[in-house]
Amino acid sequence: MNVLIATDKPFAKKAVDGIRTIVEQAGMTLSLLENYTTQEQLLGAVSKADALIVRSDKVTREVVQVAPNLKIVVRAGAGYDNLDLEACSSRNIVAMNTPGQNSNAVAELALGMMIYMARKQFQPGTGSELRGKTLGVHAYGNVGRLVAGLAKGFGMEIYAYDPFIPASVMQADGVHVANTLEDLYSRCDYISLHIPANDATKGSIGKSLLSLMPQGACLINTARKEVMNEEELEAVLAERTDLKYATDIAPGNIDALRAQFDTRVFATPKKMGAQTQEANVNAGLAAARQIVAFLKNGDKTFQLNK
Length: 306
Ligand code: NAD
Prior knowledge:
The protein is an alpha/beta fold. The chain has 2 domains: 2-101 and 275-297, NAD(P)-binding Rossmann-like Domain (Rossmann fold), CATH 3.40.50; 103-267, NAD(P)-binding Rossmann-like Domain (Rossmann fold). 38% of the residues lie in helices and 17% in strands. The protein has a 7-stranded parallel beta sheet, sandwiched between helices. Strands 2-1-3-4-5 form a 5-stranded parallel beta sheet, with helices on both faces. Strand 3 (51-54), helix 3 (61-65) and strand 4 (72-75) form a beta-alpha-beta unit. Helix 1 packs parallel to helix 12 (277-297). The longest helix has 21 residues, at 277-297. The radius of gyration is 21 Å and the shape is elongated. Nicotinamide-adenine-dinucleotide is lined by residues 77-79, 99, 102-103, 106, 139-144, 162-165, 194-197, 200-201, 222-224, 248, 271, 273-274.
């Protein structure tokens, strides 16, 4: 069995070495395509693969169609909007992600962004503290619950909204349950976004929610840019000169936002939530273990295209 790592943004060496060990100990071979620059390179490499590990690389219909032996694709990371799940299903290819493996890295970044915005992007002047402020965790999944835990350490009061998680789970963590999004947004000084980008959430964060936020509030987005209504964001920031927005995924209109709103807006130069050595290694090793478990024992625990 040939396991291919195809990454235009490579894993850390430690991750590749760990993946190799797991794959070879299972009697399989590892191929490596790193820093590729053309789709042809990807198509050529994947045509011989039984299993594929990617990071943010796009696994399109074209990719799965040129790979007659491909049985499993694993996105080493949480979000999987780079995988064409329908195309995978149409070829009976199991698609997986590695949930939870980079959550701590993202959660720490979210807290870092809150402090950065509270301290006016480290510009001279008087900032504010997180202690005593309310935080709204929008989606209480792997990242959301870690953000809640870290923020508690800062003395914040935490609310969360997630219709798919029982209220008892949040309450057991000492988190208040918001029954509606309107309730969450209107209560919280900070909102931290952790929803996936899907048909229900794309473009869903816009004027109707943002304008409910209290005076001086700040929205932190380490989820996906697609969940924002970027035009409405710009309009609300213009209208509400107290609101702030920090994101790990620069919006299409970032230049316009920066020009108009200065330190009220921040975007990382390149998505960096999961870019820690630890997350890199955790996600890569998890992907390798999941591939071995599937190919050897048919384990489909993390299958996305059920
Ligand atoms: P997760 O799957 O563990 O959690 C997602 C949560 O969203 C689940 O609890 C689910 O119940 C909830 N949810 C789904 N639809 C919802 C809706 N309509 N309203 C409210 N809640 C809803 O995912 P995660 O690992 O916590 O990741 C969260 C987000 O962070 C994803 O968008 C992911 O793509 C993104 N992410 C970004 C980076 C980065 O580098 N910035 C890295 C990892 C993950």
